[in-house]
């Protein structure tokens, strides 16, 4: 019997191939004991490969006390289980493999490791607490045992509390208020003030002074541009010998760091002595260090998935000699030169934060583009405070200054979007808690930064360039060849124009970078081979070269620049030949370009939407100077599928002007239109999006008759009637418009909808349809794990609405490439406790057209649909 039981025990981890990440909290001796226990129960340890990386193709489980190790993102993308050491003990105790999610070291699952038992609280409150604990990585136990870490009770009189006391169990008995405050903040705060039998939050004087809190782990992360290199107390020689964090790593230092020669030499020596090397080519680098998020090399490194950090992060690695992600701390990642758009109008003051937390928040406010003031006056816009007990808080109430906690500042910066203070998370202050204890726990939102600063889909092919990158030079010279900053306007233009029909593509508007020619790549990768020229020749001094090599390089740059300007020169010559010349012919060119942009707009179906999309309002404002007494428009008309002006720019311009004089302004923005004209029911982006605003829908005969009779006719005589189209699309237009008025653009409120990148019609099209109906649409590439999806869903400011929707949808086509994403999507959604639904594009189009959420089995996609035409409703 014993032998048989021993065989069953050994089979427990028979399918487990593990790797242990050694950290300060998991030292080598503890890791060795843990590995021995696993191997005794049938598991197999996988060591690091020769490249000093975790062989993810072999590993099934990674055991770590933190997610802060270099291979975490890759492991997450590969859907490998990353668990804490407690997972091993829990599995052995249960006799089966425990749920990895309940033992995840991901800090976003802030109840991970908790086992909660409810005592004498109402059933409704108990259900809410249990749901919150399970959603945030914890476990629930119906009975009191030695595994329970927290008992939720209103008093010590309950049987479960007395049982815990009699058995002397190592668990905490807390009020349910603690869970409520943790869930509101999205952070785990100290449970001390909530512990029975004498909880501090129930004492009669909550206005008493609250103890100061020390922010954990902010050392070296309080400024994006540190003034000096902090080192441990041991000697420099000893530090260099022990430094191993740069082993087998190639580091590139950008010119925008503006390092002095002495500091530069020191950093190079530390990197080289630690087993790393310094390179001048971003394509060969594993780590890129820069100050600003603006250079071409920054974008190339970021898109290639390299580690990109600033000087503070590099100093942190040197000081602590252990790996940490540059995105873990906000000020370890490069900053934006001009700050967060719109943040410059804020004047911010701090209260109740001290020490490193205060310095960190000051620098974070400045990095976001705001103005920080040490003293608070009436012209301040925001007071950031750790609790409400202070004179500044009292004054802010009198002066009507916004009072928020630091989470508002951190998450605005992390998500690169100003968060609304109407979100209760940012105005919640637990009674006896100093929120300084959770400062610095917010990481950079990688998806938000990618969307604004280095969006995918760029023409820069870094994988191809890497093959042709020049051979590395000497270690000392390589560092001198860094990225050339590119001056760009405010990067927020991509987000400010989110509602446009045609997404921005110009690199000067923060969009993807144009593909660089081979000639330009060579200069970017380090064409200057002479150290003296690189180190001492100032900017703008390219002509003062000490050798013929430098002269030849300058000529090549001039030729490349002239080559890049060739299209502009040709366009100038073309405009110069026009009637009126370059200056007075400008209007015609602008009109043509606007017309071309409009014709590039995508349609959801094959039916053409030939609306030119020209910005008529700007033209009207200009014409109003010539035509005095032009009355305000009585109708703002959007056109969809109107073919009268196709290929007739001059006729279009004249007739638009005539319509404007009749009080009819033709607009391209469906959000501002009062009327929509179309020849029939269409499934174009403009038609579908406009329906959400419940406009008056007319036949395009209205426009034709107005022009032919040269007067504004009654739009009531021209309703759009398309019985055949209504039968084909299975909805009635009048009913859809009535429902749109009731929905008020909130049909999809609370819905989280993902789209594949190659979905028919394009992601931007479905994003505009979902958002105009109040939903949230995200691009799905299967590159993020459960935590990233949870973070993406939690971005919605109205979390309560989102929690009421049980399903998460993926809009997809039926190509083989898209179908490969379905299993990962389903698994990730199930891991966060939701129901995954893979839907055909027709579901979203029919839903938006009918303004009614309805589901048919034909909308669902399964493996049998792969390679077939999209299912028709």
Automatic annotation (TrEMBL):
Return the Acidic residues bias intervals: 606-615
PROSITE patterns (alphabetical): BRCT
Family matches, as InterPro entries: BRCT_dom, BRCT_dom_sf, CellCycle_DNARepair_Reg
Domain BRCT residues, every copy? 8-105, 106-196, 343-426
Family annotation (CDD domains): BRCT_BRC1_like_rpt2, BRCT_BRC1_like_rpt3, BRCT_BRC1_like_rpt4, BRCT_BRC1_like_rpt5, BRCT_BRC1_like_rpt6
Which regions are flagged for Polar residues bias? Answer: 224-237, 475-497
Biological process terms from the Gene Ontology for this record are: DNA double-strand break attachment to nuclear envelope; double-strand break repair
Annotated region described as Disordered, given as residue ranges: 221-240, 461-559, 576-627
Locations of Basic and acidic residues compositional bias? 516-526, 576-600
**Which superkingdom heads the taxonomic lineage of this protein's source?**
Eukaryota
Q: Name one Pfam family in it.
A: RTT107_BRCT_5
> Mind naming one GO cellular-component term on file for this protein?
nucleus
User: Where along the sequence do coiled-coil regions lie?
Assistant: none
Q: What's this protein's name?
A: BRCT domain-containing protein
What organism is recorded for this protein? Answer: Cladonia borealis
């Amino acid at each position: 019997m014993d032998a048989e039981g021993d065989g069953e025990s050994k089979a427990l981890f028979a399918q487990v191939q593990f790797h242990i990440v050694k950290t300060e909290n998991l030292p080598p001796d503890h890791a060795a004991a843990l590995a021995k226990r696993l191997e005794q129960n049938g598991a197999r340890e996988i060591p690091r490969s020769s490249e000093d990386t975790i062989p993810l193709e072999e590993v099934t489980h990674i055991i770590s006390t933190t997610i802060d190790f270099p291979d975490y993102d890759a492991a997450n993308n590969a859907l490998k289980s990353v668990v804490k050491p407690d997972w091993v003990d829990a599995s052995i105790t249960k006799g089966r493999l425990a749920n990895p999610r309940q033992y995840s070291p991901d800090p976003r699952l802030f109840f991970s490791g908790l086992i909660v038992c409810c005592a004498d609280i109402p059933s409704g409150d108990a259900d809410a607490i249990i749901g919150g604990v399970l959603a945030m990585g914890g476990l629930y136990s119906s009975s009191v045992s030695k595994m329970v870490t927290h008992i939720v009770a209103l008093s010590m009189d309950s049987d479960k509390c007395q049982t815990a006391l009699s058995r002397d169990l190592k668990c905490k008995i807390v009020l349910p208020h603690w869970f409520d405050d943790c869930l509101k903040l999205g952070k785990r705060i100290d449970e001390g003030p909530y512990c029975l039998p004498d909880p501090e939050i129930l004492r009669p004087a909550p206005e008493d002074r609250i103890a100061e809190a020390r922010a954990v782990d902010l050392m070296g992360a309080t400024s994006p541009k540190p003034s000096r290199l902090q080192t441990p107390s041991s000697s420099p020689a000893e530090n260099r010998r022990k430094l191993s964090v740069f082993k087998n790593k190639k580091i590139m230092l950008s010119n925008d760091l503006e390092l002095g020669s002495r500091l530069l030499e020191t950093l190079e020596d530390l990197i080289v002595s630690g087993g790393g090397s310094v390179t001048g080519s971003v394509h060969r680098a594993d780590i890129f260090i820069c100050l600003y998020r603006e250079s071409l090399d920054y974008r190339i490194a970021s898109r290639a998935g390299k580690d990109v950090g600033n000087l503070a992060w590099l100093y942190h690695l040197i000081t602590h000699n252990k790996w940490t992600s540059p995105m873990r701390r906000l000020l370890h990642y490069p900053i934006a030169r001009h700050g967060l758009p719109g943040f410059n109008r804020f004047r911010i003051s701090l209260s109740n934060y001290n020490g490193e937390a205060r310095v960190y928040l000051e620098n974070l406010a400045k990095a976001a583009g705001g103005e920080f003031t040490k003293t608070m006056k009436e012209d301040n816009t925001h007071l950031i405070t750790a609790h409400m007990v202070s004179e500044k808080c009292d004054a802010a109430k009198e002066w009507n200054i916004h009072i928020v906690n630091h989470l508002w500042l951190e998450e605005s910066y992390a998500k690169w979007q100003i968060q609304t203070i109407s979100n209760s998370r940012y105005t919640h202050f637990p009674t006896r808690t100093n929120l300084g204890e959770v400062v610095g726990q917010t990481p950079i939102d990688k998806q938000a930064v990618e969307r604004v600063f280095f969006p995918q889909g760029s023409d820069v092919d870094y994988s191809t360039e890497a093959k042709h990158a020049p051979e590395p030079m000497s270690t000392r010279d390589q560092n001198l060849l860094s990225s050339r900053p590119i001056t760009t306007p405010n990067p927020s233009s991509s987000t400010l124009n989110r509602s446009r029909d045609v997404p921005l593509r110009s690199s000067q508007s923060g969009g993807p970078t144009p593909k660089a020619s081979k000639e330009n790549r060579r200069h970017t990768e380090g064409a200057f081979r002479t150290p003296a020229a690189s180190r001492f020749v100032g900017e703008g001094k390219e002509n003062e070269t000490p050798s013929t090599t430098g002269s030849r390089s300058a000529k090549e740059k001039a030729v490349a620049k002239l080559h890049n300007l060739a299209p502009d020169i040709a366009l100038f010559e073309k405009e110069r030949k026009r009637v009126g010349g370059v200056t007075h012919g400008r209007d015609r060119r602008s009109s043509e370009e606007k017309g071309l942009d409009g014709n590039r707009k995508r349609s959801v179906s094959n039916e053409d939407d030939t609306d030119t999309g020209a910005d008529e309002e700007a033209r009207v404002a200009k014409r109003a100077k010539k035509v005095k007494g032009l009355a305000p428009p009585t109708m703002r008309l959007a056109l969809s599928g109107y073919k009268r002006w196709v290929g007739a720019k001059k006729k279009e311009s004249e007739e638009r002007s005539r319509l404007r004089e009749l009080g009819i302004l033709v607009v391209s923005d469906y959000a501002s239109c009062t009327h929509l004209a179309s020849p029939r029911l269409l499934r174009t982006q403009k038609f579908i999006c406009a329906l959400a605003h419940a406009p008056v829908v007319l036949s395009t005969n209205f426009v034709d008759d107005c022009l032919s009779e040269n007067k504004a006719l009654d739009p009531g005589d021209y309703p759009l009637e398309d019985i055949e189209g209504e039968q084909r699309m299975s909805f009635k237009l009048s009913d859809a418009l009535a429902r749109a008025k009731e929905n008020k653009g909130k049909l999809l409120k609370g819905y989280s909808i993902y789209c594949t990148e190659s979905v028919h019609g394009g992601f931007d099209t479905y994003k505009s349809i979902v958002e105009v109906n109040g939903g949230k649409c995200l691009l799905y590439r299967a590159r993020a794990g459960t935590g990233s999806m949870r973070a993406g869903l939690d971005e919605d400011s109205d979390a309560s609405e989102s929690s009421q929707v049980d399903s998460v949808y993926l809009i997809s086509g039926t190509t083989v490439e898209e179908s490969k994403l379905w299993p990962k999507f389903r698994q990730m959604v199930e891991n966060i406790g939701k129901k995954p639904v893979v839907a055909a594009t027709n579901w979203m189009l029919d839903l938006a057209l009918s303004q009614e959420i309805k589901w048919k089995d034909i909308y669902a996609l399964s493996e049998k649909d792969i390679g077939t035409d999209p299912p028709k409703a």
